[in-house]
Each structure stands twice: as structure tokens, then as C-alpha cells.
Model the fold of this input.
Amino acid sequence: MLAEVAGLQRIVTATTRSPRSGEKDGVDYYFFSRAAFEAKIEAGDFFEWARVHDQLYGCLKSEVKGKLARNLDLLLNIDVQGAETFRRAVKSDPDLRDRVVTVFVTPESTEVIRERLESRGQDGPEEIERRLRNARDEIRQWVHYDYCLVSGDRESDFSSIRSIFQAEKLRNRHKR
Done:
């Protein structure tokens, strides 16, 4: 989408984890120390934030509002916990109202998730079962999204996301 759609930009999120090889601050993530991240939480600088695998991740208000002020379309990839927090922010922030569209992407079954986890070969049976329990809980959240995309292959998923984007660009959002 980013390569195909002019004016569409990805929201760069923040984290406390260390940069991986080749990652750049402000491009891939905003990398903060835990103390700096926690200070930003206290200051209310995030639309949403979460603790994931002992690291903190979040979406900075300044990142979103700065790009919205330039009338850019934005793409944000967050988990269900972050999406719920973001939906609450939309209700109270006039800069976001009528500008956020949510898409839940899910596999056709938890068996597909199991196959992917097992084929990676990184997790033992207990960890795979834990992740599957979490996935089942997360999948139930699809009802809170504007769209639900059951993932197939990369090309059909991209086509569906592009169609959603195009439809939303044509939506009449004028208040009556």
C-alpha cells in the first residue's frame, strides 16, 4: 500500500526494545529508554501503549497529529489491545473523529496459526499452546472493527485492503 498509494504514510511507533540490525530511529521505530518512554506515558503523549514481551510499545500523538495536519492518509499496524485503546481515543479526540478505519486481519482458522508457529521451529509445545490461547481470545475481538479480512494469500489480502481503502476514500463523511 505504501509503495502504491501516493500520500499514504505509515505511522512510526515507539518502543523500548533495542534496534535490530539495520533499523533506524524515527524510520522503523522511535527507540526510547524505559525511563523516557514511561515519562511520555505520564505526560499523556501516547494515543495507546502496551507492554509486549517485557518491552513497551506505543503510538505517539505527535506522530499521528502531525501527519493528519498535513492531510496525509495513515497506516497503523497494532494489536487488539492497542486498537481498543485507539478506538476510545477516537471518541474523545476531534482530530481523529471520522478519520479512523479499522481492519481486523485473521487467519481462516487457529490450525493455520498452529502450522505457522510449528513451521518456524522457534517455540516449544507449551509456548505454541499459550500463543494459540491468546490468538483465540484476540480473534473474538473482530466484531469491534469496521472490517474483518479472513487472510488468504498475499495478493488477495492486498487486493482486499486496497479495496477497503478506495471505498473509504469515496465515503461521504459530511455531517447532516
Summary: The radius of gyration is 18 Å. The longest helix spans residues 154-170. The CA atoms of residues 90 and 96 lie 5 Å apart. The beta strands are 8-10, 14-15, 30-31, 46-52, 55-60, 73-75, 103-106, 147-150.
